[in-house]
Design a protein that fits this description.
Number of helices: 6
Protein name: Prepilin-type N-terminal cleavage/methylation domain-containing protein
Largest sheet: 3 strands, antiparallel
InterPro entries: N_methyl_site (IPR012902), Pilin-like (IPR045584)
Strand order of the largest sheet: 5-6-7
Pfam family, one: N_methyl
Helix content: 25-40%
Length: 333
């Protein structure tokens, strides 16, 4: 016997979702999808951080092989003055070699050894190599921009380092090398595609943010403190404490907020400055004079100081990734 529904040609009634139920299910699926996407994005960001940490650790290890050699580097001894004068001359010569062989700005390559007379007329072979590289790739110093010149100097340093049969650049993939400012000079890029920055001397990068710069110890390159003649300040901190290269990535926000370069027309504190505002002699602990600061908030600071370096009113350095903060063998407190 047919039901009335079949009798009149209608399908029998079946259970179904209401519109409200469908909307609830779609909302739950959308929420779960967004949670998965957030989790994936977070995992991807952490992977970028880990990759950049690995890059910076490898760069640090490569640089330190050359850095440590300067402690025992032979230089032409001074034959004039007393013992202290001769020791001061040696410190200046070592720092002059460090400036030219481990440059961190274009002025390091622009000005040779005659700049302060420390090793006058005897530029090291590495400095001449960098000069040739700049001439070939950028078309000369005049065509080389200052946007990422520190990163580009780092690239050339790594290019000049041999680790056995391996060149320093062999540790980096092709995707980790680029020319972001288009001046013909290559940079090492972090996982966000931003150049990894470099400072040979960064006295401002001290304190809790650094496991390397300890102002309670003397400078191993100037153990007798012959450069300035005053060992500690009124608080007992060493005026010339150990300095190591700073290799740093701006991290996820790609904002560095570190003092990397001085600009202005006046001389820096305690120095005689040529037309490009380059400090002479090679004083790693030089500070900004007021007129050299890009904004009054930088006056009196040193290279590598973290703070509102870009003058936007916000400290953006907290997510930076540096070799000073990494746990590297021989680098922990």
């Amino acid at each position: 016997m047919y039901s009335k529904a079949r009798q009149y040609g209608c399908s029998p009634l079946r259970p179904a979702f209401t519109l409200v139920e469908l909307l609830v299910v779609m909302g739950v699926l959308a929420l779960m999808s967004s949670m998965v996407l957030v989790g994936l994005a977070s995992a991807a960001e952490q992977a970028r951080v880990a990759r950049t940490r690995g890059q910076i650790q490898k760069i640090h290890e490569l640089l330190m092989t050359r850095w440590d050699d300067y402690r025992y580097r032979r230089v032409e001894p001074s034959k004039t003055g007393n013992v202290r004068d001769r020791q001061r001359a040696r410190v200046d010569k070592i720092r002059e070699l460090m400036r030219m062989e481990m440059p961190c700005r274009l002025e390091d390559i622009q000005y040779g050894s005659g700049t302060n007379g420390a090793v006058s007329g005897n530029e090291p072979a590495l400095w001449n190599r960098y000069q040739r590289a700049v001439n070939t790739r950028a078309g000369g110093i005049g065509s080389w921009t200052t946007s990422f010149d520190d990163s580009e100097c780092l690239y050339m340093i790594l290019e000049s380092i041999q680790d056995g049969e391996t060149n320093g650049l062999d540790y980096f993939k092709a995707s980790e090398i680029g020319d972001t400012d288009g001046d013909g000079m290559s940079e090492i890029l972090d996982a966000w595609g931003t150049p990894i920055r470099f400072l040979r001397w960064a006295p401002g990068y001290a304190g809790v943010r650094s496991n390397l710069h300890r102002n309670d110890q003397p400078d191993p390159f100037d153990p007798l403190n012959v450069r300035d003649g005053k060992l500690t300040d009124s608080s007992g901190n060493y005026l010339h404490f150990p300095l190591y290269p700073l290799v740093v990535s701006a991290g996820p926000d790609q904002a560095l907020d570190i003092v990397l370069r001085f600009t202005g027309s006046s001389a820096m504190k305690g120095t005689v400055v040529p037309s490009t505002n380059y400090p002479v002699p090679n004083n790693p602990y030089v500070s900004l004079a007021s007129a050299d600061a890009t904004g009054s908030q930088l006056a009196g600071l040193q290279f590598g100081t973290e703070g509102d370096a870009n003058g936007n009113g916000v400290d953006e350095y907290y997510d930076n990734i540096s070799n000073h903060a990494l746990v590297i063998s021989g680098n922990a407190n």
